[in-house]
Amino acid sequence: MKSSEPEQQQQQEAANHGPVPESAGSKEGKSSSPSPDKTPPRSTQQSQNKKPGIAERLSQFPAWIERSGSAWWGRQGARCATYPKTHIAGVFLFFLVMLPGWLLIETETKGDRLWASQTSRPALMRDWTSANFPTAPKFFQLMIVRKNALKEKNYRMKFGKDLVNLSFKLNELIMKVETEKDVYDVTSGLKYEDVCFKDGAGRCLRSGLPRMWGFSKETYENEVSTDLDVVKKFATTKFWPGTLLSLNPSDWIHGYPADIEAKAASGEEVFVKMVVQQYPYVYGKDEKANEATGWNWDRGAVKALKNFNDPNYDVYMIGEKSLDDEVERVVEGDTTLNAMCYTIMFTFCVLWISRIPRYHIAQRWLKGKEQDGYTAAAGEKQKLQPYSKLRHLFVAYRGCAGWFSILLVVMATLAGYGFCMYCGVKFSTIHLVLPFIIVGIAVDDVFIIVNAFDAFEGQELTVAEKAQRAMTQVGMSITLTSTTDLAVFLLGLTTSYPAVQYFCAYAAVTVT
What we know:
By secondary structure, this protein is mainly alpha-helical. It has helices at residues 5-17, 22-25, 27-32, 42-49, 54-82, 84-98, 111-114, 121-132, 149-152, 161-176, 192-195, 217-223, 227-236, 260-266, 288-304, 322-333, 335-353, 359-371, 378-396, 399-422, 434-454, 463-492, 498-511; strands spanning 138-146, 157-158, 253-254, 271-272, 274-281, 313-318. The strands form 2 sheets. Strands 3-5-1-6 form a 4-stranded antiparallel sheet. A two-stranded antiparallel sheet has the order 2-4. It is elongated, with a radius of gyration of 42 Å. The termini are far apart.
């Protein structure tokens, strides 16, 4: 009986390749490779249906965040490229809402309120005293030393009539100081007698050499004719004239000799190092008008003596607002320098973001306009030409994009400052450094986005598609770096130094 054709083929293959191994045709071999219809083992099925554990889910969470965040940033990039005017209008609107916060600015320049913990016992006692004793005196002080004493390191000056004459002259100038008109319009024309700190008898408690004669120039001229008369007056006087207050000249005359009585008896010359004249004044802490009165008089006194000059003595002055005024002067003096620094930095950023013009962009744009019928007539073409050149400058050179990116950084900084001022966060001079830091961080992000966008140059993609792919690539990187900066500044809020707290608050809001 003849075998079928399939059997003859199998016999021919066996003859050519040899006999089939026992393991290949055995039952064990057949059972090791189950047929498709056979159900897999229970252990394999359980492993396939097993849900991932908490540890496995947590390990997959960062990757999920990155995928979701990248997709979200890609969508935002496409929206910004598709509707640029809408997003620009939103940015300007937010800026205009935050900008009025600058009108609520509160500055703080005092070192004890910036670099000392406000919960410490001394700070609490200071606040308690200010709250319960609002008429605590503030001081305007004059310090008299010999000519060029600071430069020559020689403070030795003769104690006599010339020194007293200078003190009377300075006192007369101080008494002529009048407050100028301020924002409250209630302090014009006020003199020292109106703001001075008074004793129980209503007398201004000013100190200095003229007080030995009751600040009366006539009494002084009647009693004093030589330097020795001045020395004898101080040597024999034990109480302030007209009071029972003990006289201790060493409190305001530095280098005052302890043996002045012996020197007066022997007629020996007396030398001192420095003479201080104090003019205490007061103001109501909770009344802005009264506060302005004191500050206004203090600044008026500084202004009146600013150009005072004496051939034999140097006069230095310091008031409660002197440090504030000095900080303001330094800030105003550095305004030009800061403007130059910003200009150089912005110019560099614009040049870096700009690019060599690609003329096919403008040509393609013009061609599209012609196809749409905008340049059918010669007159229409002439009208289109200037606009096309301007658009070519902004688009092909990308100059507009460079300047606008820098403008957005500046607007974000100003808006962040305005928000903090809305919230009552105080402003100090240390914040002048912050714009440089913020601009550096923001411009770095601009460079990253622009480089990612340029990576798709030459591909047949629309602007929205390029923006989507660029933001998908770099969006999460920028987010993570900004989040890190935000976390660092928020941690800075936990410090006990108010200056650092204010700085970190402004930085955290502006970075965000």
